[in-house]
Each structure stands twice: as C-alpha cells, then as structure tokens.
Amino acid sequence: MSFVNFSKKEISFKIVYYGAPLCGKTTNLEQVHASVPEGARGPMTMLSTRQDRTLYFDFLPLETDVIKGFISRFQLYTVPGQAIYNLTRRLVLNDVDGMVFVCDSQFDQMENNVESFKNLEENLGMDGRDLTEMPYVLQYNKRDLTEIAPTHYLDFMLNNRETRVETFDAVALKGEGVHETLNTIAKLVMAKFIKDHNMEMGSALKTTQVAGKDA
Ligand SMILES: Nc1nc2c(ncn2[C@@H]2O[C@H](COP(=O)(O)OP(=O)(O)OP(=O)(O)O)[C@@H](O)[C@H]2O)c(=O)[nH]1
Ligand SMILES: [Mg+2]
Question: Which atom of ligand 1 lies nearest, measured to the CA of 52?
Fold first, then answer.
C-alpha cells in the first residue's frame, strides 16, 4: 500500500514485477538501474542464487516529484519465478500498489506464463486482494527470439479479464519497452492514489516519465 509521510511530503509506491521463471523480471530492473541517473535512484539490491536466479527479490528504489508538493518514491521489486519460492512471492506481494506481469513470449513458455498468472491471482486472493482493484500492465518480453507467439495470442491467453490492460512488447535484454512499461505502471498507481485520496491531479503527472524514454 502506498505510504504517505506528510511531514516529509513523501509518498512511497511499491511496484512488483511478477512472472514465470526466467521470463526477464530481473533484466527489467537491471536496465532501469543502468539508465536512470544516480541522483534519482538508490543502489540495486539483488538476492540471487549462484546461477543468477532470484532467490528472494531484487529491489531498486527510484525518486521523482510528480505529485505536486510531494516527492514520490517508487520501490521496484521482482519476485523469484521458480515454483518452490511461493512463500517468498507472497511476502514480496505484501502491500503492493501496482504490478508488471512479465510474459516470456516463447511458445514453449506459454504454460509457465499462464501458471504464473494463476499463481499471482491465487496469492493476491490469499490477502483478500484481486486484480480488479490493482493497477497492472502486461509486458510481452523476448520479442527478439524466433519461436514466439503473436501478441494477439498472448492477449487471448493473458489479457482476457473483463477489463483489458495495457500491453507492451519488449526486448528487456536490450532495454526495449522497459521504460515504456515502467512509466505506464507508475502513472497508473499515481492516478489511483490521487483518485483514492481526492487529490487534484498535478499537471506534471500527465507528462511525466519516471524512468526516461526507451532508446
Ligand atoms: N533473448 C532474450 N533474452 C532475455 C530477454 N530478457 C531477458 N533475457 C534472458 O533471460 C534469462 C533470464 O532473465 P532474468 O531477468 O534473470 O529472469 P527472471 O524472470 O528474473 O528469472 P527468475 O529470477 O529466476 O524468476 C537471462 O539469460 C536473460 O539474459 C530478452 O528480451 N530477450
Ligand atoms: Mg530474477
């Protein structure tokens, strides 16, 4: 849940990158970390296994001033995709404000994508939450590979809830689509915050880019 510190005029938002094993969650954060100027971000924390698989989470703090008079902090997290770490995923999801569901576009990963999406819904449900009240976007990653599903098929498999969400094609490894994805989810969580708190929308929110532009 967003955390507001009125004396410091700060708001913190938590955004979680979720998805199947090896779909590219950590790669997204690495790309953001590499491209955002040092003053606007903290150090990236990675809790990984020796094989570079996320063991607990990856964490990257960002800072911006887009809600009038308030500093907005974005805490970006990834979850470990491997099935055995579900308890960890549940912990990381705690108090999440918005989600990026990263999809591995390869045909042979479709079952894993669908399973991970179901797992997300189940885990949110255990905390009495669900995707209808949660801003989220879908990122169709690894579009550089050859054996990939067309995006309309990915929409059919993953973007089939009553309200369709925004989707982004990406090649996270090259930084393509990474910023577009983050800027959109950041705007969605801020817009929800402003609506929930009956605040006036700062004009900056309409034009802001939390993480700059894609190359
Ligand atoms: N070809 C290609 N490979 C990618 C892309 N994005 C990520 N990868 C590769 O996919 C592998 C897994 O990426 P990670 O970012 O570690 O995946 P993850 O989702 O964090 O995996 P877990 O932490 O184990 O759940 C790495 O070898 C990346 O280099 C992409 O857009 N294209
Ligand atoms: Mg990872």
Answer: 16
